[in-house]
Design goal:
about 400 residues, alpha/beta, Rossmann fold, Rna Polymerase Sigma Factor, Chain: A, 4-stranded mixed sheet, binds NADPH dihydro-nicotinamide-adenine-dinucleotide phosphate
């Protein structure tokens, strides 16, 4: 029986995780569920899964949740970052689903890594921000880091399990990272200027949270994933080639020196990589419908257009620049995406804000996590300062 903490339980990945867990009560028990503000969802989930702890990052939401849960001693309610870190590192837990969106997920994900847990990593921003420091924490504690992002989980499945960080030894020539291209794949540069948040969030293949939907539309998601792949598989951007594959059926591929290309295919449903991570090395039913290749008929591939979608280029450059450049990129992107979703920034201004933020900051490596968080805060302030200068 695996005891699981689900960070970000009220979100898209959190709900899919709980759906897989629900199907296997003999294998998994829920130790803790966490969210930020969505109290209604947490009441429902706590009544169903009866976790030992429920954590709300927002203290007011924690008070509301505590009032609404039955006073039967089953679930204690905690608040804030300390509560998140406590349930990620608790000795009773062996598996932590890291599915908080954005930089806010780094402290509890790191707490899980430091405590040597099986960390199921969906929260790519945590790894993009902290890179080497996070991988060092994993190596020190002996934590088991398993990728949940569908592309990285596909690559993981196509690699020999003992060679995940030894691509050369495994005979890998390249990683072929697939991307759907998002809802605006065929839009002209002019048409991109006027796209709305509702359009950006209507992904053609995947149903996801708002932030990652906008990232998918701008190709920043692929940029963050490029960086994520470099850290997870100990490789360089030139070894990772992005292929736009609009059908989202091939989730990524590994090209070997003997000419073999191994791919992982499946319906675009996050329960597949989640089930893979939860049960690894075993396979369990994820509730995902079987793939019907006859109905699909054909697969297509295109090169990404870095002129219309500069975020992918900016992410690759930030990784090359090293130091805290990826953390600054990530923070500026979070500010830009929030501004776009609030109707304060054009879609095409997202890369402009990121580029200007990077240009006005120094990005030397941080000495420690405190230094990294300070750089993250500074980048958010600088990005906010750009807002009135960019918005039209
Ligand atoms: P959602 O927006 O659907 O959910 C985000 C979760 O994080 C919610 O539980 C939310 O709580 C919580 N949260 C938000 N802000 C904070 C905060 N400041 N402190 C603590 N918790 C917070 O996101 P997704 O599930 O789509 O994505 C989660 C992560 O997984 C992201 O990093 C994303 O890139 C990654 N991912 C997602 C995929 C998908 O298909 N959705 C695919 C691959 C990766 P509340 O509900 O209360 O706001």
């Amino acid at each position: 029986m695996r005891s699981v903490t689900v960070l970000g339980a009220s979100g898209s990945i959190g709900q899919s995780t709980l759906d897989v867990i629900r199907r296997h009560p003999e294998r998994f028990s829920v130790y803790a569920l966490t969210a930020n503000r969505r109290v209604d969802d947490m009441v429902r989930l706590c009544l169903e899964f009866r976790p030992r702890f429920a954590v709300m990052a927002d203290p007011k939401a924690a008070e509301q949740l505590a009032v609404r849960l039955p006073d039967d001693g089953v679930t204690d309610v905690l608040a804030g970052e300390a509560g998140l870190c406590q349930v990620a590192a608790a000795p009773e837990v062996d598996t932590v689903m890291a599915a908080i969106v954005g930089a806010a997920g780094l402290p509890p994900t790191l707490a899980a890594a430091n405590a040597g847990k099986r960390v199921l990593l969906a929260n790519k921003e945590a790894l993009v921000m902290s890179g080497q420091m996070f991988m060092d924490a994993v190596a020190r504690s002996g934590a088991e880091l398993l990728p949940i992002d569908s592309e990285h989980n596909a690559i993981f499945q196509c690699l020999p399990s003992d060679r995940m960080r030894d691509l050369k030894g495994a005979g890998v020539r390249r990683i072929l990272l697939t991307a759907s291209g998002g809802p605006f794949r065929t839009f002209s540069r002019e048409a991109l200027r006027d796209v709305t948040p509702a359009q950006a969030c209507a992904h053609p293949n995947w149903s996801m949270g708002q932030k990652i939907s906008v990232d998918s539309a701008s190709l920043m998601n692929k940029g963050l994933e490029l960086i994520e792949a470099c850290w997870l598989f100990d490789t360089r951007p030139e070894m990772v080639e992005v292929h736009i594959h609009p059908e989202s059926i091939i989730h990524s591929m590994v090209d070997y020196v003997d000419g073999s290309v191994l791919a992982q295919l499946g319906s675009p449903d996050m329960r597949t990589p989640i089930a893979n991570g939860l049960a690894w090395p075993e396979r369990i039913d994820a509730g995902v419908k079987p793939l019907d290749l006859f109905a699909l008929g054909q697969f297509n591939f295109e090169r990404p257009d870095l002129e219309r979608f500069p975020c992918l280029r900016l992410a690759a450059e930030a990784f090359e620049a090293g130091g805290t450049a990826p953390a600054v990129l990530n923070a500026a992107n979070e500010v830009a995406v929030a501004a776009f979703l609030n109707g304060k920034l054009r879609f095409t201004a997202i890369p402009v804000m990121i580029e200007r933020t990077l240009a006005c900051m120094t990005t030397e490596a941080a000495d420690d996590f405190d230094g990294l968080f300070a750089k993250d805060r500074e980048a958010r302030c600088k990005a906010q300062e750009q807002l009135p200068k960019i918005a039209v």
